[in-house]
Amino acid sequence: MSRQVILSVEALDPVLTGVGRYVWELVQRIPRAPSIGRVRFLRNGEWIADPAKLLVDPSPIERARWHRILRKKTKPQRQWMERQLARASVCHGPNFFLPDIAETGIITVHDLSVFRFPETHPAERREEFDQRFEDSLRRAAHVITVSETARKDVIDFTGIDPARVSAVYQGVGAAFRPRMAEELLPVLSRMGLIPGGYGLCVSTIEPRKRVAELVRAWRMLPAGLRVLRPLVLAGSSGWLSDSIFEEIAQGEREGWLRYIRYVEEGDLPFLYAGAALFVYPSIYEGFGLPPVEAMASGVPTVVSDASCLPEVTAGAALLAKPEDVEGFSGLLQKALLDESWRAAARDQGLEVAGRYSWDRCVRETAALYAKVR
């Protein structure tokens, strides 16, 4: 029998984060899963007609017909109808929290950075977790994490029964693939880049991503190599990033660093595929989608030897300790110049990235909906 689903879509926004991309893939694919009936979308108590429009402009919200029907009811009638609908559906909170109307359901916990690194999150984010996370965990029939590392972290931190937690890996989109130089040139030339002519890091600029350490390590490379392979940083600013941007600005003044705050979603696969090297020195992730996208693009990759990144890259990436800046710089030089390693890393990276599929992610997610009674 097919299941009705209520899917929370608060993470959808014109600028997608990693969580936002995960939610968007679920929005597109869950309604097509064989075991799934009708899917409704909920955002901060509003029933959404077309989640795709949230990627363009989240306001004004185009409300679903169901929402308009409910608005005509008294508040007690509306609350009763929503609770009845929730009881008849599988409620999935793919961004940590269950909807308030849900007595039970499934939540996806991407990582525990707000607890492990609270100083890197704004106060309102910490307060939201203090108010909602424990309650969502208590109500959830099952918890999805996005890696085995994250699964173990959630079990250790919360004491939840391991049988209630499953790891479901994220996927990588078909747009992330190797590309020939002539295909890359029209997009990269708009950014002032050339195919194979830069190192790349796609990341929010914040302390746990260890971007400052990457900038310092790149500065230690031989001057000629820095000119030949400048570092490109792409990503929005996060919490406590002022000092990091001072180092970025210095690198820009010296001419070996480019900072691109925002990359259009359609341009991102080209930016990846044109890189000579991808570096992701974050010390704490739930899955770490950027290095998987880089490997799928045929780009040799360096990641930190921390959190889930060794698990997710599965031997295809060089592992670095970002705090050892001198050693990190030496690894970067090897990754840029050692053609034997680079060729092997491309092949291994493509093989590993090929294991991650959004279709598989959705299939396994839909199977877990059966655990909700």
Describe the structure.
The chain is an alpha/beta fold and 373 residues long. The chain folds into 2 domains: 182 residues, Glycogen Phosphorylase B (Rossmann fold, 3-Layer(aba) Sandwich); 173 residues, Glycogen Phosphorylase B (Rossmann fold, 3-Layer(aba) Sandwich), CATH 3.40.50.2000. The protein has 16 helices and 13 strands. It has a 7-stranded mixed beta sheet with strand order 3-2-1-4-5-6-7, sandwiched between helices. Strand 6, helix 6 and strand 7 form a beta-alpha-beta unit. Helix 8 packs parallel to helix 10 and helix 12 packs across helix 15. The longest helix has 17 residues.
- Work out the helix count: 16
Rg, alpha carbons: 22 Å
The major β-sheet equals: 7 strands, mixed
Distance between the termini: 13 Å
Helix content bin: 40-55%
The CATH architecture of the largest domain would be: 3-Layer(aba) Sandwich
Strand line-up of the largest beta sheet: 3-2-1-4-5-6-7
Beta strand %: 15-25%
Q: By CATH's scheme, which homologous superfamily of the largest domain applies?
A: Glycogen Phosphorylase B
Total number of strands: 13
CATH-defined topology of the largest domain: Rossmann fold
Mean pLDDT level: 92
- Name the shape in a single word: elongated
Query: What is the number of domains?
Result: 2
Order of helices and strands: EHEEHHEEHHEHEHEHHEHEHEHEHEHHH
| CATH class division of the largest domain | Alpha Beta
Structural class: alpha/beta
Low-confidence stretches: none
